[in-house]
Amino acid sequence: MKCLIIAAGKGRRLQKQGQSKPLIPLFGIALIERTILSAMEAGADEFYVVTGHQHERVASFLSRLAKRLNVPVHTVFNARWQNTDNGISVLSAAEYLHEPFLLLMTDHVFDPAIARDLIHAASTNDGLTLAVDSGLDNPLVDLDDVTRVNVEDEKIAAIAKGLMAFNAYDTGIFMSTPSLFDALKQASRKTDNAGLSSGVQLLAAKGEAHTFDINGRFWIDVDDPVAFWRAENALLTRFQQQPDDVPA
């Protein structure tokens, strides 16, 4: 199964941890490597990583990682990364993905079982399926930054940051068909800076945006120093609970 990972942003809020967000180490493992390892555990065996900021450094790291893990990792450069939202980064890989694929963010750390279960749950769905967290009291979530989702009958009714009526969080873990690219192209005709949520909302309007509820399972968006600290503590706790495992 192919996996698309978005890793184009600058990550300015994490600059103290490192100049390239995908390469920032969390317990000695770069964020992008953690994402790839988690996806491999879930069943992915080929990767497309959309890069932007410090493309050469990230591409060089991924080339070495591909050899070390013995898995194909292709880099796709989004030349517009500085002036566009993440939807354009997703569109950058459209020509390479013609079957259902796993879609992940480079800065989201999560239990690999979530992606594995999502793949299974989405196997009969059209459009896309988003792993959502209905655990609204999740202490790892930054409510001011998280994308909110209103779910009705296991489908997305609305998705956006700042959404007032919501009952779940967007974990950034998707299983999608190529119809997402068509939706993003449609969204980009209205604005040059189409976000991923814009495409998802268009699919939702057609009843093609499904949800898979993880209900409080481990995930975190490592987007700023506070989230980085929370991720470290959460991984330490998981490691203490599962001492035979490497923190992941």
Descriptive overview:
α1 packs across α4 and α5 crosses α6. The chain is 32% helix and 26% strand. The protein is globular, with a radius of gyration of 17 Å. Strands 1, 4, 5, 6, 8, 9, 10, 11 and 12 form a 9-stranded mixed sheet that branches. By secondary structure, the chain is of the alpha/beta class. It has one domain (2-238): Spore Coat Polysaccharide Biosynthesis Protein SpsA, Chain A. The two termini are 21 Å apart. The protein is built from 7 helices and 13 strands.
Tally of individual domains: 1
Radius of gyration: 17 Å
The CATH topology assignment is Spore Coat Polysaccharide Biosynthesis Protein SpsA, Chain A
The CATH architecture is Alpha-Beta Complex
State the CATH class.
Alpha Beta
Separate helix tally? 7
How much of the sequence lies in strands comes to: 25-35%
Total strand segments: 13
Structural class: alpha/beta
Q: Give the uncertain stretches in residue-range form.
A: none
Q: Which features would summarize this protein structure in a list?
A:
single chain, 248 residues, alpha/beta, Spore Coat Polysaccharide Biosynthesis Protein SpsA, Chain A, nine-stranded mixed sheet, 7 helices
Summarize the structure.
The protein has one domain (2-238): Alpha-Beta Complex (Spore Coat Polysaccharide Biosynthesis Protein SpsA, Chain A). Helices cover 32% and strands 26% of the residues.
